[in-house]
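Page 42, continued from yesterday. The earlier attempt failed because a stray header line got pasted into the input along with the sequence. Redoing it now with the clean sequence only.
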Amino acid sequence: MSGHRESRGRRDEPGLVGAASQRQAQDLPWAMQVAVRYDKVVPPRQVDVAEAVARAVVALLAAPGSAPGGSWHGAVARWRRVQIRKLVRRARGRRWRDVQELPGVTVTQDGPPGWGQAAARAFVPGPVRPSPSPWPGLRLRGPTFLPAYGCRLSRRR
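This time it went through. Structure tokens are written below.
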């Protein structure tokens, strides 16, 4: 079964910065960070991971917190107005559990029998620096997920 869940997170996390921090952040690039859960034992297909990421981003943008008057609206509106940049990171085990505390939306995507479940969490947009505490341990260059149907995909370097 596929689904998504939303959480508010703590107010001191990305997208919910104070006035002094907002002035300093004006010059920093903003991004919507996305974490994907990576399971080495039963990995998901690459297509399922891509679908989970896309659904997580759409779910965050459609969430009540992103609507006018919502707690995330200012951050989402600024991100959409300035630049639409996304950074995808991978997470496993404890780190995946840790990032669930940050404000955002998690989506799961079931794969066919024999493949793992894909999961992605889109976070409220914010400046790329400083990173919230769980993020420095997450790799920006994710793993190579197994493509569907045995085909090979090339990676650009």
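Notes: Residues 7-16, 148-157 have pLDDT under 50 and may be disordered.
Reminder to self: strip header lines before submitting.
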